[in-house]
Sequence to fold (524 residues):
Amino acid sequence: MRIAVVNNTVPFLAGGAEHLAHALTAKLNEFGHEAHSVRIPFSWEPPSRIVDSMLACRLLRLPKVDRVIALKFPAYYVPHENKVLWLLHQFRQAYDLWGTDLQGLPSTPDGTAIRDAVREADNVHLRNVRKIFTNSRVTSDRLQSFNGIDSEVLWPPLLSTSHLSCQSFEDFVFYPSRVNAAKRQLLAVESMRHVKVPGRLILAGKGEDPAEDARIDSAIRRHNLEDRVVWERTFISEERKADYLSRAAGTLYIPYDEDSYGYVTLESYFSRKPVITCSDSGGTDVLVKDGVTGLVASPDPAGIAAQIEKVLGDRSKARAMGQAGYELVQAMNITWDHVVRRLTE
Amino acid sequence: MRLIVATRLCLLDPGLRELAVRVTTELQKRGHEAETLLLPFDSDEANPLDQLLGFRLLDISGHGDRLIAINSPCHLLQHPNKAIWMVPEPEQTDASETPRGQCLDISAALQQANLTGYSEAKAIFFDPRVPRPPLSGPEPSPISELSSDGLLSREGIEKSEDPQTIVEVWDLVVSALTA
Fold:
């Protein structure tokens, strides 16, 4: 089958959605299809351009393609008679973010008109597709509550797992992620003040905001945590990340209110390591079952420290939770085999 | 310099795609940050005006220092520093800009769209094999000749005995497109 994987792009920026589109295209080809990645530029500044971009997508054509798999707003408006969505995001500024600090759109008659145009276009065009899958329960719930449209969750797998393994359970917990306020590495650092058992926190990831970097550095110094917190401030290589995961006692992943479980969680379970997350981390609760596959902490330094102590202090429990996490991922069928089959049926 | 190299995506004929990807690679080799943008287009539609409007509405004006638009309809993309390179269409023997069988109204609209795209460009390069349309406007853009002949491996120059020749040809192309 000749397939176009359609996604948005912002030139010179690549985030999680771009990686997923790339991975999906590669996997479709691996499974014998002829897949092409189609990236449509999208700008939301100034907001008046949003409606132009929506119209542009409706006016484009994808000829000589048997199936379109569209991932994001507004790329999913591209017309095609055999289109499925693997929906990563609607335009959240017009939905759950409207009325919050993250609204983005102006609270003016023009801003309201843009919001209404987005909602109306979704109501019309998302009903006109073969099937909608989403990447998370949260995305499915939003689509149902705002637009009254049903969907099926299709969990995104890792691109590759062959490099992940479990070697040992050493004296550290590992937190690999982009470093920013939403991922809350600062909270992770502050937790280490309260950890009474020996062991370190290893952060890996590049800072995205110099001010947040400075706050983290300052917390490390202020609490004399230089010996207990290591921060590798780079885009860590897959090999190095796999090495840390294979040796860690457990993984820390404590973002604030994410839609999905996060690739870190999957990577941890393929390395048979338990995951510590927070009760307000959002989609991590799909995989992190408290006391079974990992530990759920209250989102404060003492609460997180208590769970880090359990992982560092009881290796046999950590080992059992890591193994249970791996088995849960298998039971949930988070595999490319399943994703490719559902998207091409 | 940060450059976006845009052309249309034709799944069955990879010619333009290969050229755009290769231009991107050659720019990167010479120290530029470059990205390829392939946009879908149905060349068989009798009336392509809707699609042209779609291209026109896509906004990349805030990204990159320069847009290199290879062939129609990418020449309609809006960017404050747009360079257009018109190369022979892979599937066409004569590079006429007016597809067969179109009514005069559509032809006139296409011609107007072309003029609009050209008039915004900071530089326009025509392959010698592509007939130049009559350009008009208060400030015609600078037009130069830039051959695309043999820039892809299947067309010859990469088979040259002398790798230095290949490098020199690409040096020339990159220096023209980034000037």
